[in-house]
Fold:
Amino acid sequence: MRPMRDLVRLAKAGDLRQVREMLARANPREVATLGTEALHAACSEGHQEIVKMLCAAKTKLNAKDQNGLTPLHVAAFRGDDAVVQILCKAKADVHAVDEEGWTPLYVVASFSGQVDVARSLLRAKSDVKFKTANGTSVVAAAQQKGFGDLLQLLKSESKAS
Structure:
């Protein structure tokens, strides 16, 4: 029998069978604590089925890691639309801010530039008019990075809202 602390390592490795077995025998308190770390790990590697399983196991979707990142921030940073959609469907908070004061949509505009990820976040009601504490908007971040297609989408959404 594997100790519950192995859940994080197994989630990161994408070991669906063993993660399923561990969740089946875990007590809810362990899942709430270690499941959150495992969810971050699974999101960082793009393991969609494990992300779904951990969401269904009632892990804390909006818990922050040591950098203030939620699992949704991690998926947005990776530009992983499939994982972003899973988390949004599970009702992850699209308005959560990390230690820098950035939302997942702002992370997309600053790093991945993935239009499909931005679309998914916008469908989940992410704020296209969000600004950081220093006043930089999501649109300005995309413009600074030269993400033309993303910039077009954000400007269009900004006018519509």
Q: What stands out?
A: The chain has two domains: 1-60, 63-160.
